[in-house]
Amino acid sequence: MKECKSVHLSGTLEVPLPQTRAFSLFTPSGESTWVEGWDPVFPAPVADEIEPGTVFETHHGDYTIWVVVRCEPGALVEYARITPGDRAGLVRVECEAASDNATFVTVSYQLTALTPEGNSALDDFAEGYGDFLEQWRQSIQKAIDAG
Question: Parallel, antiparallel, or unpaired for β 6-15 and 102-113?
Fold first, then answer.
């Protein structure tokens, strides 16, 4: 039987916003300000959507279940993500002030294919990771410019 692959990817982009504002772009609802079609659904009411244990679902591309596993508001948020039958793992976003009006955002993915057929999709994601983060940077800049 063919084994499933895992990938560990990390990259940094600069967001031209103060750290707290930049961090807010990577909360479940915050991503909807710059990711077209991103519409998180919370199956249970939540008072704080970045509180560890919070669950939400997205249908942006593939159906995915997300769980907040760690949060240091303004600095770090980590999500477990499961796309049933495809892949699962962790996504971590860390924000560090670059200056008063800019933030370095490091985005790390640790993903495992759930079937051998998912290996090639992980390879493709890893190969295009730099372009993926550049698309994030451009989308964020476009949202900032639009106000």
Answer: antiparallel
